[in-house]
UniProtKB/TrEMBL annotation:
Protein EC: 2.5.1.61
Gene designation: HMBS
Keyword field: Porphyrin biosynthesis, Transferase
Residue ranges of domain Porphobilinogen deaminase N-terminal in the record: 4-185
Name recorded for this polypeptide: hydroxymethylbilane synthase
Cofactor names: dipyrromethane
InterPro entries linked to this entry: HemC, Porphobilin_deaminase_N
GO BP annotations, alphabetical order: porphyrin-containing compound biosynthetic process
Key word Transferase present: yes
Family the UniProt entry places it in: Belongs to the HMBS family.
Origin superkingdom: Eukaryota
Species the sequence originates in: Homo sapiens
Any GO molecular function: hydroxymethylbilane synthase activity
One family name in Pfam for this protein: Porphobil_deam
Keyword set includes Transferase: yes
Length: 187
């Protein structure tokens, strides 16, 4: 039986996405076997610097691209939002899965559950890894401060819950839903 090697990031969310894609492929190609090869990327390793300040392209895809070039994997599964706008020569996007919920979600520190961004106290700190989200929200909520927060979903939620630095964090609703954490969405 032919084995198709599927590259992905090591994060739990990336694995959930990849498992879903592999399940779809298995249903369509029952004569093939799939092996998932998980790896860490530069973006996964540098967690103490805002993405905008790292100054490198393909932070979450470079290692996956190298594995494809070296024929260590046959295909990779990745979030479209993290792909570079121009793919390396010879690469192509083979498929795009149905889009999940495209909205952002606010997850509040346990002491602020039941609040909204409008009702958070003056100078409350809201974490996000997105300059776009921070700029949009700063304009609408000038009473709040916005700071970079990095890490996978598990890490960001742990930082929110266990530290006193953030009153809330902004995350992709789709990621929270994939992880089964619908109940964490506060707004």
């Amino acid at each position: 039986m032919r084995v198709i090697r599927v590259g992905t990031r090591k994060s739990q969310l990336a694995r959930i996405q990849t498992d879903s894609v592999v399940a779809t492929l298995k249903a369509s190609y029952p004569g093939l076997q799939f092996e998932i090869i998980a790896m860490s990327t530069t973006g996964d390793k540098i967690l103490d610097t805002a993405l905008s300040k790292i100054g490198e392209k393909s932070l979450f895809t470079k290692e996956l691209e190298h594995a494809l070039e070296k024929n260590e994997v046959d295909l990779v599964v990745h979030s479209l939002k993290d792909l570079p706008t121009v793919l390396p020569p010879g690469f192509t996007i083979g498929a795009i899965c149905k889009r999940e919920n495209p909205h952002d979600a606010v997850v509040f520190h346990p002491k602020f559950v039941g609040k909204t961004l409008e009702t958070l106290p003056e100078k409350s700190v809201v974490g996000t890894s997105s300059l776009r989200r921070a700029a949009q929200l700063q304009r609408k909520f000038p009473h709040l401060e916005f700071r970079s927060i990095r890490g996978n979903l598990n890490t960001r939620l742990r930082k929110l819950d266990e530290q006193q630095e953030f009153s809330a964090i902004i995350l992709a609703t789709a990621g929270l839903q994939r992880m089964g954490w619908h109940n964490r969405v506060g707004q």
